């Protein structure tokens, strides 16, 4: 029984086809530059060579048609016909307060997602486009929406209401939503499995450290606090995003530089974070390399990033009244031993001690704290696609 997982960005479409009888990935790939010149689909069928298809893709529907063709292609395909796709799972960034879990997509759900465009203008339109294109091409295949915000709907009100005039929550739904929920949920569950304890009995801090980065306090299996907010700009310093800063800085920059609000929004989202501090790159590999060669601002960017992760961990220990495990995931969290060490080095007061030999790993599940550490540090590669596929199977009832 095959499930196709789709994740649409404004000019991209990521996909993964999984055989859910054994949760095996049978093909995956990425269509890029949709709607612009030079569209290309890179397709990797299981056990076969990668295929690169360069064809104009004016929109997501055309990209999906090309993807369907390659999936059933005699040479590079993995399916005999499209009928072998039992269901489709779609990643959707923002479901507002409408959905606290994944749902079967119907016209009503589509309406609800469209209503969320106002609060997620960058993220939801491409997700919606992808679903609509898929529903046109596969009209009889059930589809499920899996939302980044859903896992965080368990946060208590004191965590998600901002200290602003309350009417803005009522009028505009301004509140903390949180993102990366599928990833936080997945690694929290895996951590519990690895510790041989029910997730309902644990206090876990999950650190999703990638280009976008967020931390969640998962108490008894539920998100009770997370670092991203109304938008994915709040919280940690990130690749290009500033994270939490004094909000008065926005208007101050607008006045000083004489720029409109969209321009300042761009600066905070695209020119800040470790890129803005270092002036080197938004990619942590480049920054680590520059820092190792003595670039002081690159080192400062790393120090600020790590410091903010540590501060947030401390805050979440307070929020949960303790912690059993701290989990690292996503590009940086899974791969950078030095970064994990720096973050954990100052957490001995919690009873957390890193074992350097165990920490010397990349992209593999492992407990990286010493055996006598009372708080466990763990590396768990995230797998949002698998979570989406599992939810799809469950909701469609396959
Ligand atoms: P996103 O999905 O938000 O784009 P990822 O989870 O793919 O981000 O993480 C991407 C980031 O992970 C890159 O910007 C890079 O800085 C970092 N990264 C990946 N591999 C390594 C590594 N070996 N060492 C340090 N950083 C790494």
Description:
The mean pLDDT is 95. The protein is globular. Strands 5-4-3-2-1-6-8-7 form an 8-stranded mixed beta sheet, sandwiched between helices. A 6-stranded mixed beta sheet has the order 11-10-9-12-14-13, sandwiched between helices. α10 packs across α11. With 398 residues, the chain is of the alpha/beta class. The protein binds adenosine-5'-diphosphate. The site of adenosine-5'-diphosphate (ADP) has 13 residues, from α10 and α12.
Task: Summarize this structure as a short list of keywords or feature phrases.
globular, 398 residues, alpha/beta
Q: How do the strands of the widest beta sheet line up side by side?
A: 5-4-3-2-1-6-8-7
Average of the residue pLDDT scores: 95
Overall 3D shape:
globular
Helix/strand-derived category reads alpha/beta
Spans of at least 5 consecutive residues with low confidence: none
Amount of beta strand: 15-25%
Ligands bound, unique: adenosine-5'-diphosphate
Which series of helices and strands comes N to C? EEEEEHEEHHEHHHEEEHHHHHEHHHEEH
Structure summary, number of beta strands? 14
Describe the main β-sheet briefly.
8 strands, mixed
**Helical content, roughly?**
25-40%
Describe the secondary structure blueprint for this structure.
Blueprint: E1 2-8, E2 13-19, E3 24-32, E4 40-45, E5 51-54, H1 60-71, E6 85-92, E7 103-104, H2 107-115, H3 124-137, E8 143-147, H4 157-160, H5 166-172, H6 181-195, E9 203-209, E10 213-219, E11 222-226, H7 248-257, H8 261-270, H9 273-278, H10 284-292, H11 296-320, E12 325-329, H12 330-335, H13 337-345, H14 356-359, E13 366-367, E14 376-379, H15 384-396
Helix pairs in contact: 1-3, 7-8, 10-11, 11-13
The structure holds adenosine-5'-diphosphate.
The site of adenosine-5'-diphosphate has 13 residues, from helix 10 and helix 12.
């Amino acid at each position: 029984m095959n499930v196709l997982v789709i994740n649409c960005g404004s000019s991209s479409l990521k996909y993964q086809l999984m055989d859910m009888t054994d949760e095996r990935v049978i093909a995956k790939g990425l269509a890029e530059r949709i709607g612009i010149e030079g569209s290309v689909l890179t397709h990797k069928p299981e056990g076969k060579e990668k295929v690169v298809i360069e064809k104009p893709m004016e929109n997501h529907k055309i990209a999906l048609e090309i993807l369907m063709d390659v999936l059933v292609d005699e040479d590079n395909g993995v399916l005999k016909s499209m009928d072998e796709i039992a269901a489709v799972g779609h990643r959707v960034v923002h479901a507002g307060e409408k959905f606290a879990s994944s749902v079967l997509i119907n016209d009503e759900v589509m309406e609800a997602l469209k209503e969320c465009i106002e609060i997620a203008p960058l993220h939801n339109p491409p997700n919606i486009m992808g679903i609509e294109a898929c529903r046109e091409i596969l009209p009889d295949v059930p589809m499920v929406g899996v939302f980044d915000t859903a896992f965080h709907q368990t946060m208590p009100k004191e965590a998600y209401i901002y200290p602003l005039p309350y009417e803005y929550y009522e009028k505009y739904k301004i509140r903390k939503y949180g993102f990366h929920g599928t990833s936080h949920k997945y690694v929290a569950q895996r951590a519990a499995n690895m510790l041989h304890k029910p997730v309902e009995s644990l206090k876990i801090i999950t650190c999703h450290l990638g280009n976008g980065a967020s931390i969640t306090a998962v108490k008894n299996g539920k998100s009770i606090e997370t670092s991203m907010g109304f938008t994915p700009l709040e919280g940690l310093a990130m690749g290009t995003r500033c994270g939490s800063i004094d909000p008065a800085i926005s208007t101050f920059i607008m006045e000083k530089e004489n720029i409109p609000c969209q321009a300042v929004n761009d600066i905070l989202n695209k020119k800040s974070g470790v890129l803005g501090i270092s002036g080197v790159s938004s990619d942590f590999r480049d920054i680590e390399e520059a820092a190792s060669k003595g670039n002081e601002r690159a080192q400062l960017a790393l120090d600020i990033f790590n410091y903010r992760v540590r501060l947030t961990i401390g805050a979440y220990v307070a929020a949960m009244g303790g912690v059993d495990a701290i989990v690292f995931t996503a590009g940086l969290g899974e791969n950078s031993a030095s970064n994990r060490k720096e973050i954990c080095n100052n957490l001995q007061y919690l009873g957390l001690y890193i074992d350097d030999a165990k920490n010397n790993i990349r992209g593999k599940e492992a407990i990286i704290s010493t055996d006598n550490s009372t708080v466990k540090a763990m590396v768990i590669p995230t797998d949002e696609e698998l979570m989406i596929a599992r939810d799809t199977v469950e909701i469609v009832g396959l």
